[in-house]
Every structure is written in structure tokens, then in C-alpha cells.
Specification:
The structure holds 2 protein chains of 2 kinds. Chain A is built from 12 helices and 9 strands. Chain A is of the alpha/beta class. Chains A and B meet through helix 3 and helix 5 of A and strand 2, helix 1, helix 8, strand 11 and strand 12 of B.
């Protein structure tokens, strides 16, 4: 069982996201330590991209702040490598195809694996285009996460059959960001997935409070939360870590009980 | 090596969120069903001819030819189309297709505003809802086009993210499409984005080279020696090149916006300064930094102010079939003024990039050679900006 899949073994998984370097790597590190301490089961580390087309305004602005602060992919590899010595929670990178492609797919996976990263999410690489990335991911023991969306329908079977780590179930149409309610029939999406794979499913996009997180985890194997955390960091800046810790604690407890 | 759908050599593909995959698959299926359908084509040709004023003229620019003293220059007058640019060719095709697919709403990005105006026009004609995304900076540069879109019944949404230009408008239109797919077609304005857009837009713009070929054979009894067009994403250029690609003796020349020069950071010349990348749904050449962050490009022309180029152009460059040259703001502005004075034709600042290269090339060619320059649009929209460029402040 991979490190990522293992994180779903004992209970439903809570998966927070953070943009590396927003507003600086020191703050990111302090937030990640708080996340790990307060019950995060997997942590998604965003490598910022200048033009993140799947993100709503909150994460877009986080990417901007991080890039304006001068953070680079190389710095993030170095940062993750150090962090992996202190934190046992599995890490994933989340970024865009060009960040990986431009760095060199092979070189990127090699560095990611040296940094102790277990998985990779590329929201602009769908099933049809994944081979160029997944073959090299496999070589370096990095699990390329597959996404399914409310519009996937007849594609779910094909995607699920080749999925690794966990399946990222996109809760609703549109980009990342908080939503007051989620109307998609998550239950039937997850059911279709389960008919085709034993890989766990975690729901993301739009989850911002413990009730939503518990509800989504109840229908699946876990909940992913990004914008709600990034929003705390945007508001609190360097003082964010403690608040992020408190938020993660409440969310993780809700998810673990679901 | 990538061997997925919609490839031009290594370029192209479908690098988009899963949420949009069924939408582009549905679009491809619909396009394959209708592209050779006689009824669809009859309707489209009727719209082209009766509504958009096609075929556009292939005009022999006698005074320009004589002044430059070399090759004979013909102008393909896409500026005479309804709405004043080539953009209407694509919009009529896509909107008609969207209508057949049962879509009731169009969304579009726009840079100079020409594609936005063309989409808004077609939406009015076909009774569809329309929302256009436009960079905030471009809305200021092209205020008249913003007014026109609203007059035509469209909503214009300012895009403030990033550099507030065409690239950000494309990103925002893609985000909007992700959130509303069932009734909405994304009427992409250039030969870019995920498959099938580069192919669909090319096919609808290929009417330009089909006409050039017929008109040239009629007027001169032979093919031209060179075809020149400006390139941002590259839709008027691929439309001008397409039916000549197999005619190896016809030089195909795309003119990129060099902005303040390709040795500065203020440039949008993708082939000349970019490298291979993945962005906006496609693999192609992009202006980017060493970490793959997309560069904030610059050109005086809002329509060419884009950090990428369509995948088919990237391929034509790779195989050496087409040449891509860079034209600076200064050269384009000079050509804008030159054509206005010598032929009484005010070209779009985008098209002026192609004219600027023709000015360099024609004198170096023999008098029995023939050049076709595509005047992709009219320059009315640019007059205030060019006046400003020359230090004169006029109100529109």
C-alpha cells in the first residue's frame, strides 16, 4: 500500500492545501507544522503558477503573492526536502502542467522524489494527456492523482481503472473556492468509482467548514480543503500558522468522525 | 512522445481540467457531424456572403507597389468584412455550430475587441446570450469596441487578474466555461486552446486562402510568391496560409509583434523569444521564464499581445514551412501611416505588422513576383492610440 493510500486506512482523511511561499516559505513551513500536528492526513503543497486556470480568485491571489515574493520551483524542492525530515504526513505537489514540463518532466520527478513527495496533482492534465507525465511519475514512485468532475459521467470508469493514490472528486462545476452549498450527487459519483477501483476518493472544491467537510467525507473517503485555508493566510499573513492549526483541528476532527 | 488527439507534430493536445473534457469531446463530435453537412455549409456560406460581405476583395495595391519598386502587392481585404475584421468568419461558423448543438449562450475572450465585437454581433443575429471577457487594460485601450459590444446586447466583463490583457481574458473565459457548460459554448477567437479549437477555427478562417487562391488565379493566372499575415494566436495567418501549405513555392510569412524589440522584455514575439510549453489547453511555444511562469508580454497592438501562438503555426515553424518574423511597434505604426497615405486604406495596427514586413520584402523582390498581404482588420479602432503614440491626444 502506498503512503498516500495508507493515510485513508484508519479513518476518513482530511487533506489541507497550501500555496508554498505565500507570503513566504517561513510562514508556509509554520503552517504545515501546525497542519501536521492538528490532524492533517495528507498535505497538498501548491507550487504557484502565474496563470492558474482552474483556480478561483483566492488561490489565484495566493499564487500571485508567492511569485511576487520570488519563490521558485527549486526553492520549493529544497524547502520540501527539509520539511520531510520533520513531518511524517505524506506530501503531494499540486501545480500546473507547464511548471513541470518547463522544468523537465524527468528532472522534476527526480527532485520531487528526493524531496520526499509521494504524489502530484496537475489539474490541466486530463486522462488523455497524462501518459507523458505518469510514466515518469511511476519511475520515481510518485503517484499522479486523477480527478473526476460532475461532468465526467461515462469517463469515470476509464479514469478510475487507472487511478493511483486517491481520486480527487471535484465537488461542483467551476473553479476552486468556497461555496455555500454543494448540489452535485457525490454519492453516485463515488459509487461509480468504487465499482471500478479500490483506490479511495476524496472530495474537494468548495468545502469551507466542518459540517461540509463531514458531509463530503461521509459520502466518500475524505475531504480536501484549499481556499478556506489560503484565505486565513491572506488575512493573517505571518500570524496565520496558529489560526490555520485551529481550523485544521476542527476540520480534521469532523472528517475523522464522519 | 505525445500522440493524443489534435496534434500538429508535438504541438496541440487537450491540456484542460477534467470538468471541460466532455464539453470539448461533444464539440468535436458536433463539428465532425456538421462540417461536411450540405445544409450547414449552405447556411454558413449564405451568412458569409449575404451578412458578412464575403468574398472579400483581393485588391491590387498599385500605388504601394510602385512606391516600393519591387514585387507586385495585393491586399486581401478582410477589413471590408462586416464588423471590420476576419474575426466574423470564425464567429459565424462557431455560433452556427453552437446553435445546432442546442447552446443558447456564447462566451468569448477578446484582446483588441474585434473578436468580442464579432461574437456580440453574431449573438445578436442568432438571438443568443453573450458574455465577453476583456482585460481591464484592453478595455481602456479599446473603449469604442466595449461600447459596441454593449450596444449589441452583450455583457462585457472586465478582467483584472494578471496583466489585464488577452491572456488573462482567455483564462477567465475558460474559468467561466468550467462553471457553466450545459447551455454555453466558448467561442474561442483564435487557432489556439485545446483540440478541437485550433482545427475548427482554422477551417472557418481557411475561407481567406481559398478565396485568395481563386482570385489570384483569375487575376494573374498563377499563385503568389509570398503570403504575409500578422500572428498573435494566428487565426488570420493560418486562414491566409492554409490552402497554400501544399504549394511549396509559396512563401508563408507570419509577422509577430516584437513590441519594443525582441531583445527587450517588452515583446510578444513568441516564435522569436519563446520556448516549448503547455498553457491554455495546448502544447506550443510560449513566452515564459526559466520556471515556466508565463511572461507578461507587451505590444502596442492589443490583438497581438499574447504570450503564445497556435499549435499549427508552431508546427509550420518546426518543419520550416512557414517563416515567422518580428515587427516592432515603431515599424507597425509607420506602416499604419504609410498605407493610409498611399492607398487611402487605414489598416488595423495588427495588420500593420504584416504590411511593415511587406514594405521590407517587396523592394528586395523582382517586379514579376507577387506578394499577398492580408489586411486582417480596419484601423478605425486604433486611431486614438496611434495618435497618442505620436504624442497627440484626441478624444474618440
Amino acid at each position: 500500500m502506498s503512503r498516500i493510500t495508507e493515510a485513508f486506512k484508519d479513518h476518513k482523511a482530511f487533506i489541507p492545501f497550501i500555496t508554498c511561499g505565500d507570503p513566504d516559505l517561513e510562514t508556509t513551513k509554520a503552517c504545515i507544522l501546525e497542519m501536521a500536528k492538528n490532524g492533517a492526513d495528507i498535505i497538498e503543497l501548491g507550487i504557484p503558477f502565474s496563470d492558474p486556470t482552474a483556480e478561483g480568485p483566492v488561490i489565484m491571489e495566493a499564487d500571485n503573492r508567492a511569485l511576487s515574493g520570488g519563490v521558485t520551483t527549486d526553492q520549493i524542492f529544497e524547502f520540501t526536502k527539509e520539511l520531510s525530515r520533520e513531518v511524517s504526513v505524506p506530501f503531494l505537489y499540486m501545480t500546473y502542467a507547464n511548471v513541470v514540463f518547463s522544468y523537465g518532466i524527468e528532472k522534476f520527478m527526480k527532485e520531487a522524489s528526493l524531496a520526499g513527495v509521494s504524489g502530484l496533482i496537475l489539474p490541466d492534465v486530463p486522462y488523455e494527456e497524462k501518459k507523458d507525465f505518469s510514466e515518469i511519475c511511476d519511475k520515481y514512485g510518485i503517484e499522479l492523482i486523477s480527478m473526476i468532475a460532475p461532468t465526467s459521467e461515462d469517463r469515470i470508469e476509464m479514469i478510475a481503472k487507472e487511478a493511483k493514490g486517491y481520486i480527487y472528486v471535484v465537488s461542483s462545476l467551476g473553479v476552486t473556492g468556497e461555496r455555500s452549498s454543494i448540489s452535485t450527487d457525490i454519492g453516485s459519483m463515488v459509487k461509480l468509482v468504487k465499482e471500478n477501483t479500490s483506490v479511495p476518493c476524496a472530495v474537494g472544491f468548495g468545502i469551507s467548514n466542518p459540517d461540509q467537510a463531514a458531509a463530503m467525507a461521509g459520502l466518500s473517503d475524505g475531504a480536501i480543503v484549499g481556499s478556506a485555508i489560503v484565505k486565513i493566510i491572506a488575512k493573517e499573513g505571518k500570524n496565520a500558522p496558529q489560526k490555520v492549526g485551529e481550523f485544521v483541528k476542527a476540520m480534521a476532527e469532523a472528517v475523522h468522525k464522519a | 512522445m505525445s500522440d493524443t488527439k489534435g496534434r500538429f507534430g508535438v504541438h496541440g493536445g487537450q491540456y484542460i481540467p477534467e470538468t471541460l473534457m466532455n464539453a470539448v469531446i461533444e464539440l468535436e463530435e458536433a463539428y465532425n457531424r456538421y462540417k461536411d453537412d450540405p445544409e450547414f455549409n449552405r447556411e454558413l456560406i449564405e451568412l458569409y456572403n449575404e451578412y458578412a460581405n464575403r468574398p472579400s476583395r483581393l485588391y491590387y495595391a498599385k500605388r504601394l507597389t510602385e512606391a516600393l519598386g519591387g514585387a507586385k502587392i495585393y491586399l486581401k481585404r478582410e477589413d471590408l468584412n462586416h464588423t471590420g475584421a476576419h474575426k466574423i468568419n470564425n464567429c459565424l461558423g462557431q455560433a452556427l455550430l453552437a446553435k445546432k448543438m442546442g447552446k443558447t449562450r456564447l462566451i468569448a475572450e477578446t484582446g483588441a475587441g474585434q473578436h468580442g465585437v464579432a461574437t456580440a454581433t453574431v449573438a445578436a443575429l442568432l438571438d443568443m446570450e453573450c458574455v465577453v471577457f476583456m482585460g481591464k487594460e484592453d478595455m481602456e485601450r479599446q473603449a469604442l469596441n466595449v461600447y459596441k459590444m454593449r450596444l449589441l446586447g452583450s455583457e462585457v466583463v472586465p478582467v483584472t487578474t494578471g496583466t489585464g490583457t488577452l491572456k488573462d481574458a482567455v483564462s477567465q473565459a475558460m474559468r467561466e466555461w468550467t462553471s457553466r457548460i450545459a447551455d454555453t459554448h466558448y467561442c474561442l477567437g483564435s487557432v489556439m486552446g485545446p483540440h478541437p479549437f485550433p482545427t475548427i477555427v482554422r477551417d472557418f478562417q481557411a475561407v481567406i486562402s481559398r478565396e485568395i487562391k481563386e482570385q489570384m488565379l483569375e487575376k494573374e493566372g498563377r499563385l503568389p510568391d509570398a503570403v504575409i499575415a500578422c500572428v498573435g494566436g494566428g487565426s488570420n495567418a493560418i486562414g491566409s496560409f492554409y490552402h497554400f501549405i501544399e504549394d511549396k513555392d509559396v512563401r508563408l510569412i507570419g509577422c509577430e509583434a516584437a513590441g519594443r524589440g525582441i531583445d527587450t522584455f517588452e515583446t510578444a514575439a513568441t516564435i522569436n523569444t519563446g520556448r516549448l510549453g503547455i498553457f491554455h489547453g495546448m502544447k506550443s511555444y510560449f513566452c515564459q521564464n526559466e520556471y515556466g511562469q508565463i511572461a507578461p508580454v507587451y505590444s502596442i497592438s492589443a490583438g497581438l499581445d499574447y504570450p503564445g501562438i497556435g499549435p499549427e503555426h508552431a508546427y509550420l515553424h518546426d518543419i520550416g514551412r512557414a517563416e515567422y518574423v518580428a515587427i516592432t511597434d515603431d515599424e507597425a505604426v509607420e506602416a499604419f501611416e504609410y498605407l493610409s497615405k498611399i492607398e487611402g486604406i487605414i489598416p488595423a495596427i495588427e495588420s500593420s505588422h504584416a504590411l511593415a514586413y511587406a514594405k521590407k520584402l517587396a523592394p528586395a523582390m523582382d517586379k514579376d513576383k507577387i506578394i499577398v498581404v492580408t489586411v486582417s482588420g480596419r484601423g478605425d479602432k486604433d486611431c486614438a492610440a496611434i495618435a497618442r503614440y505620436r504624442g497627440e491626444d484626441i478624444s474618440e
